[in-house]
Specification:
Oligomer: single chain
Distance between the termini: 70 Å
Radius of gyration: 19 Å
Order of helices and strands: HHHHHEEHH
CATH class: Mainly Alpha
Strand order of the largest sheet: 1-2
Number of domains: 1
Strand content: under 5%
């Protein structure tokens, strides 16, 4: 009888752990549906047109503005890993605040990145700040303040 109890307990634990979602599963799905078309599945970008997200120094340097970038897009020149990119990034205004949190956490912890994760509160605070300015604002993402030759 004890063997059956142990077996039953092991089976129950297996079912519960097998159904547990990865904390970044939603972010990966959102990335695939909304970001990978331009930034590619592995985040390498598209040559000189679309900047990489994989190992991108821009993510850490502009951490606080990332939620605004995802929501409102970008129509300015930026520098990523020393290269200048001027292609427009379309807004993703259909994504919820939770979706933005999830996709940013996926990008910040995958694709060769080791950046801090966002809380939902941080994303909302960032979005509140950028919603009060005319966005995208070149002053938020100044490419002219970065030396692309470095």
């Amino acid at each position: 009888m004890p063997f059956r109890s142990v077996l039953l307990l092991a089976g129950i634990l297996f079912v519960f752990t097998a159904c547990e979602r990865s904390p970044y599963q939603d972010g990966a799905r959102i990335y695939k549906n909304y970001c990978a078309n331009c930034h590619m599945d592995s985040g390498e970008g598209l040559g000189a047109l679309i900047p990489p997200l994989a190992g991108a120094d821009y993510l850490a340097k502009n951490y606080d503005q990332l939620p605004c970038l995802v929501r409102y897009g970008l129509q300015d020149t930026i520098v990523v890993n020393g290269k200048i990119y001027a292609e427009e990034m379309p807004p993703n205004d259909k994504l919820s605040d939770i979706d933005i949190t999830n996709v940013l956490n996926y990008v910040n912890t995958h694709l060769g990145n080791q950046n801090p994760i966002f809380t939902l509160e941080q994303v909302r605070a960032s979005l509140d700040k950028c919603s009060t300015i005319q966005f995208p604002s070149p002053s938020l993402f100044p490419a002219d303040k970065v030396d692309p030759t470095r």
